[in-house]
Amino acid sequence: MRALNRVCERTGYSVPVVEYAIDALFSSITLEAIDTVMRGELGSAHVEPVGPVAVVSSRTTIGVAIVPALFALCAGCDVHVKDREDALVTAFFETLAEEDSRFAVSARASQWCGEAQAHDLRLYAAVVAFGTDETLRAIRAQLAPGARFIPYGPKASIGYVTREALSDSNVTRAISQGAARDLVLYEGQGCLSLHALFVERNATLGPQAFAGLLASAIERANIEFPIGQRDAATEARIATERDLALFRDTVSYSNAQASFLLELGEPDRAPAFLPRVLAVHAVDGPNDMRAYVQRHSLPLEACAVAGHRDDVFAAAIAAGANRVAAFGELQRPPLDVKHGGRPRVAEFVR
């Protein structure tokens, strides 16, 4: 509870959002999942730890440093995490040390100024870092020659709804609820938030009708996961985006407070990347989705898909998605799925 309160204070997210994040993170860490990763990536080969590992946490994603730190520890490395102000990783490591005193030495977390300043990253054989491209370049420049750099830069996630999935009202309702959750969690920050949605034409329920259903689901999701703290500049940008949608005379859904915005989008407009703002794009097939991603040079992390069609899965992978998930599960990645397309543990051994 202390950690939850500190995370809420640091991020500005509401309590239900942070509770969801902490549950999603720690419920994924199971012995079975860890064993699956270790066996799948290392097999029975004899390996040695790469050496001491540093992990530079993300400013936004809650507890993002914990999973790579966990696998570095499993590989036998000593780990030092640059923790955020909420000290979530510190609390986790303290718990590990209470269970096994060896972790008091091998798992450390602390805060230092800036992304890398005031701490000598040349001391580490491998450095994991999360951040913007500029931040990652600055960190990379400070590593020792020959050190492994494991960067995780900014990415986006998208969704695709097939016409077959829109033929059943119960299925459609579930899709809209899942998509709404993927949108509102974490205010669009992080690579697993829903940033663009594609809906096929020529279905029982058309893209515009689905957008109306989704808007209602977003309003309900706003109650389940209420908005935390928003600065005035962000509120103004969302309100401006809403007003521009009205000016363009496109079909859009919002409210007087501009707490969210859903718009039937145009293919030449890139994602807004604003909290709880989403464009629904009507498409004829998955190649339209792939073309959109390429047109706007979107680096993808995941794609939520409704409907089981090989061409959709193939297009999502070809567009760059590292993971295909069900709607509502974008923000709950399994532990044994490669984040950013990178192995979980193999980079921490030699």
List SSEs in N-to-C order: HHHEHEHHEEHEEHEHHEEEHEHE
Strand count, sense and barrel status of the largest sheet are: 7 strands, mixed
CATH structural class of the largest domain: Alpha Beta
Strand content: 15-25%
| Number of E-type strands | 12
Describe the 3D structure.
This protein has 350 residues and is of the alpha/beta class. The chain folds into two domains: 2-154, Aldehyde Dehydrogenase, Chain A, domain 1, CATH 3.40.605; 156-325, Aldehyde Dehydrogenase, Chain A, domain 2, CATH 3.40.309.10. It contains twelve helices and twelve strands. A seven-stranded mixed sheet has the order 8-9-10-7-6-11-12, sandwiched between helices. Helix 8 crosses helix 9. The mean pLDDT is 94.
Short structural summary:
It is built from twelve helices and twelve strands. It is α/β, with parallel strands linked by helices and 350 residues long.
How would the blueprint of this fold be written?
Elements: H1 2-11, H2 15-27, H3 31-42, E1 53-56, H4 66-74, E2 79-82, H5 88-99, H6 103-106, E3 107-110, E4 126-130, H7 133-140, E5 148-152, E6 156-161, H8 169-184, E7 194-200, H9 207-224, H10 232-248, E8 252-254, E9 261-264, E10 277-283, H11 286-295, E11 300-306, H12 310-318, E12 323-325
Parallel strand pairs: 1-2, 1-4, 2-3, 4-5, 6-7, 6-11, 7-10, 9-10, 11-12
Antiparallel strand pairs: 8-9
